[in-house]
Specification:
alpha/beta; 9-stranded mixed β-sheet; binds oxo(2-sulfanylphenyl)acetic acid; binds manganese (II) ion
């Protein structure tokens, strides 16, 4: 090891010792960014002429301290990969289908723990359910909070998690289709150019409700996965995260050839 390697290792050891202390004394808090996962979890509804939907979540009891298992309780699940708070892997989209490290079992796990930027769009989204985050708005956010760096997550805060116990409100579908906020194609391209590892939202998917009708259909999915980046959807409690400075832990199950997975996303944040 060179002298600078030795120094880097000593610094990393100190960093983890400090983190351990901060977790134990409560000065770093763990925020739960996942919604409850069960039969009532809202699920995506696609136009029937376009696609088949993900099935409703089912929980089946195997035993409950009874004749089927006297000393234990356990269940089995029927669960789509893209259910509830979940991670989108690059191979979820046709544009990312050839990445050998693009499934839940092959992604480098280093990506599952990363710094996170939280862009507050809650007011805009409350005023306009079809609100789209633009490059201009992200640049203004960076001027205020600091640049978005390579390897970081960008999350769109809309406070949409307040609706996640009511599928109708969460999907907000009218005669004209689903109306939930999202991001423009140009803005996603800007963020990919910045080197983000992924983009996450508090709505049912990484794209806006109306994204099926956009010039590039589902631009967040199309462009993120084309560039081997990840998505997160149905995140909760982003109002408890700072704009910058938190660490996001979002690790999908190691499903073989999985295109995504429910995640118990967690954020490490400085105590208020
Ligand atoms: C399939 C088709 C369209 C969309 C999605 C899935 C998702 O949002 C998802 O869960 O990845 S928009
Ligand atoms: Mn998904």
């Amino acid at each position: 090891m060179t002298a600078s390697d030795t120094l880097a290792k000593a610094t990393a050891t100190d960093t983890l010792a400090n983190l351990a202390g901060s977790l134990l004394d409560g000065s770093v808090k763990v925020v739960d960014c996942a919604a409850p996962l069960g039969p009532d979890t809202p699920l995506l509804k696609l136009p029937p002429e376009l696609a088949v939907d993900t099935p409703k979540i089912e929980v089946h009891e195997i035993s409950r301290y009874d004749n089927n298992g006297p000393f234990w309780a356990w269940n089995w699940l029927k669960l789509g990969e893209h259910s509830g708070t979940h991670f989108d892997a690059p191979q979820h989209w046709v544009t990312g289908k050839d990445y050998p490290d693009g499934t839940t079992d092959t992604i480098n796990p280093q990506a599952f723990v990363a710094p996170v930027n939280v862009i507050d769009c809650s007011k805009e989204s409350a005023g306009d359910n079809d609100f789209l985050l633009t490059t201009e708005r992200v640049k203004a956010w960076e001027a205020e909070h600091g640049e978005i760096r390579e390897g970081e997550w960008v999350l769109m805060r809309t406070d949409w998690d307040q609706f996640n116990t009511d599928e109708d409100k969460f999907l907000n579908t009218t005669e004209t289709g689903p109306h939930t906020p999202g991001v423009t194609a140009e803005c996603i391209e800007y963020l990919i150019g910045k080197g983000i590892i992924g983009w996450g939202t508090q709505c049912i998917g990484t794209d806006a409700g109306m994204a099926a009708t956009f010039e590039i259909p589902f631009p967040a999915h199309n462009l993120l996965h084309k560039h081997n980046r990840y998505g997160l959807a149905s995140l909760t409690n982003l109002d408890l995260l700072p704009a910058k400075g938190a660490i996001l832990i979002a690790n999908p199950l190691k499903i073989v050839k999985g295109t995504g997975s429910p995640v118990r996303a967690l954020a490490l944040v400085p105590a208020a």
